[in-house]
């Protein structure tokens, strides 16, 4: 026996804590042991390049072996190995990382970085094993192989070994409740999860389990469009093709590599949860980078790999510090730069992607002042205007330099049939008709009547109908404080109305037609909180205009929406609203004539008067329906009234 002793503990002097609480997830032990094996192989290459080893390094290989009878799992590498002195120094002194010392000694001689930084990864094996053995032979000439054994207590034994091949084998005798790691399928799954992109083949029963190639570590000039797409499909199978991607590659003021994709947005995507995978030297760390990526870019997908992101000893949590913030700012800036470049160089491509990109951009503008300043001039909105657009050219890969970030366009560039505009362009285009006023809609289907009314009179309407636009309109009003933003159903611009000054007064009633209509609807509806307005809507085809419209003043509607949001409930349609009756519509004129021809009977209203009242109610119902102002009971009443109206109309027609 070479030696018998006690492990020197350098972390709180409590070995059981290291065994049970070093990592939150026991399965992480395999990631740590395989990472150590990769390090051992990389170290051998480094000493070979330094001229300190002249032997054959052989083919890199890590082998995992399972023995169900002995309840053991082993991980073997053909790397640098250890001498007895190195085992004492790097294994027995917990938390003294050999990786740190090795990096300093051979700095500048590595083509692959050393993974380990903490010196505790090896001890994760004690979370699942009741005994851990190390059998190792150093690359150094004349070295004696050694065998180290520890049962999870501070006691260990160190003996000579009969091993004749360079490298290290770690053998775990698993605890009874950890025998799931004796199943080949379980091990394959863990290797794919944590070690898939490690640069050394990892074998089990002769089968290579990992694909090894990390696309983000490749030079962008070596990757084709199909390479990027294939990598995306591998990371996110069964998803639509991404819109754009960026290949990050910088080593100043921090080291970061990665490929980030703009995905097609789907209704089931949770924009509050990160989709980007975090790696450290090709070792999988986490399924999201919430602490690194700015919140508005969380829906992006892809990979970030950096040694400058500070991790705790388990690599499972990020520590918020200045470096993390700077990395986040860097990523946001690269995204902003690319969007501006795309907007100016290929606006049609930008427009084609805007349906999905717009959510990212608007959210970023609301939450990041620096990003807002980058992109505030390229915020676009779908418009009812007929705008001319130039056909787009087919985009190409754009490379700043061989070592810089590279963006690639994916979406085919087709000329868009839907016009888009910025707010500044809209204001400039319409300053003669309605200076400093913007008409917008939030529901194309529900507000179709109002949109058509504006379009027919040459008024341009912007579509602000994404879920984020409710908040974004408030931002626009702060940015354009001298501009009035008016939803198409909040009020009607004077441009849409005919002048009533020339209305004729009826000598029999001493009232204008507008006054008669107003009284008729007030009496028929009997809703004191509904403000009846009578206006003649401009149109070359009065029949094509709505007979009535419900208007909800802008301030009142926003208060309603704000209260609903604060109380986390659906906004109820307020009793106080405006019913604008279109006096130019033939239906309304017919109603006036019908009402004037009704005869008051001794026992109450005549059938004609009843029908007039029901039609007034029906006109109001139809106007209310376009504002989605019905609850369940209201819809039931509407159907019943509709049936009554049709019954009475058919009765009269059959007489």
From TrEMBL:
MF-aspect GO terms: ATP binding; ATP hydrolysis activity; ATP-dependent protein folding chaperone; unfolded protein binding
Sections of the chain in a coiled coil: none
Sequence positions that bind ATP: 32, 36, 77, 82, 168, 315
Matching Gene3D superfamilies: 3.30.230.80, 3.40.50.11260, Heat shock protein 90, C-terminal domain, Histidine kinase-like ATPase, C-terminal domain
Record keywords: ATP-binding, Chaperone, Cytoplasm, Nucleotide-binding
Pfam families: HATPase_c_3, HSP90
NCBIfam families (alphabetical): PRK05218.1 (NF003555)
Family: Belongs to the heat shock protein 90 family.
Database matches in PANTHER family: HEAT SHOCK PROTEIN 90 FAMILY MEMBER (PTHR11528)
Annotated protein name in UniProt: Molecular chaperone HtpG
Naturally occurring in which organism (per UniProt): Anabaena sphaerica FACHB-251
């Amino acid at each position: 026996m070479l030696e018998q002793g006690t492990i020197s503990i350098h972390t709180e002097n409590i070995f059981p804590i290291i065994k049970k609480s070093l990592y939150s997830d026991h399965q992480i032990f395999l990631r740590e042991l395989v990472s150590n094996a990769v390090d051992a192989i990389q170290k051998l290459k480094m000493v070979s390049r330094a001229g300190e080893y002249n032997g054959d390094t052989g083919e890199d290989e890590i082998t995992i072996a399972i023995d169900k009878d002995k309840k053991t799992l082993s991980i073997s590498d053909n790397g640098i190995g250890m001498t007895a002195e190195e085992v004492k120094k790097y294994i027995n002194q917990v938390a003294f990382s050999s990786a740190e010392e090795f990096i300093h000694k051979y700095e500048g001689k590595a083509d692959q970085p050393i993974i380990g930084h903490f010196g505790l990864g090896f001890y994760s094996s004690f979370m699942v094993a009741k005994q851990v053995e190390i059998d190792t032979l150093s690359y150094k000439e004349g070295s004696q192989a050694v065998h180290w054994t520890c049962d999870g207590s501070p006691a260990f034994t160190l003996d000579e070994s009969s091993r004749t091949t360079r490298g290290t084998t770690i053998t775990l005798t698993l605890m009874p409740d950890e025998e799931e790691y004796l199943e080949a399928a379980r091990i394959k799954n863990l290797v794919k999860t944590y070690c898939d992109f490690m640069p050394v083949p990892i074998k089990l029963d002769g089968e290579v389990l990992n694909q090894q190639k990390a696309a983000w570590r490749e030079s962008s000039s070596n990757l084709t469009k199909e390479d990027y797409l294939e990598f995306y499909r591998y990371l996110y199978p069964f998803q639509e093709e991404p819109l754009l991607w960026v290949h990050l590659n910088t080593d100043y003021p921090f080291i970061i590599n990665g490929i980030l994709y703009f995905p097609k947005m789907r209704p089931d995507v949770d924009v509050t949860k990160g989709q980007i995978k975090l790696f450290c030297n090709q070792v999988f760390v986490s399924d999201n980078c919430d602490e690194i990526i700015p919140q508005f870019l969380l829906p992006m997908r892809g990979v970030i790999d950096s040694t400058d992101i500070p991790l705790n000893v388990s690599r499972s949590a990020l520590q918020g510090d200045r470096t993390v913030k700077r990395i986040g700012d860097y990523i946001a800036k690269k995204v902003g730069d690319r969007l501006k470049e795309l907007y100016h160089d290929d606006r049609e491509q930008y427009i084609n992607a805007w349906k999905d990109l717009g959510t990212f951009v608007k959210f970023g503008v609301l939450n990041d002042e620096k990003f807002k300043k980058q992109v505030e001039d390229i915020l676009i909105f779908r418009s009812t205007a007929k705008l001319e657009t130039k056909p787009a050219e087919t985009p190409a890969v754009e490379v700043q330099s061989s070592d810089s970030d590279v963006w690639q366009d994916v979406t085919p560039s087709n000329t868009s049939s839907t016009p888009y505009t910025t707010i500044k362009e809209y204001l400039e285009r319409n300053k003669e008709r309605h200076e400093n006023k913007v008409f917008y809609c939030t529901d194309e289907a529900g507000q179709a009547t109002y949109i058509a009314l504006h379009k027919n009179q040459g008024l341009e309407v912007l579509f602000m109908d994404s879920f984020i636009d409710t908040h974004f309109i408030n931002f626009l009003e702060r940015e354009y404080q001298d501009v009035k933003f008016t939803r198409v159903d909040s009020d009607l611009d004077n441009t849409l109305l005919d002048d009533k000054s020339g209305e004729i007064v009826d000598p029999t009633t001493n009232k204008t037609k507008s006054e008669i209509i107003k009284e008729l609807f007030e009496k028929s509806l009997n809703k004191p909180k509904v403000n009846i307005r009578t206006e003649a809507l401009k149109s070359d085809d009065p029949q094509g205009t709505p007979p009535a419209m419900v208007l909800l003043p802008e301030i009142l509607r926003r208060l309603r929406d704000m209260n609903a949001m604060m109380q986390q409930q659906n906004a109820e349609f307020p009793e106080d609203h405006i019913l604008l009756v279109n006096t130019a519509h033939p239906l309304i004129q017919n109603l006036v004539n019908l009402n004037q021809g009704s005869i008051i009977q001794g026992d109450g209203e005549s059938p004609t008067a009843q029908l007039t009242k029901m039609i007034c109610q029906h006109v109001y119902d139809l106007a209310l329906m376009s504002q989605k102002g019905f609850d369940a009971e209201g819809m039931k009443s509407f159907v019943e009234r509709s049936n009554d109206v049709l019954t009475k109309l058919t009765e009269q027609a059959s007489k």
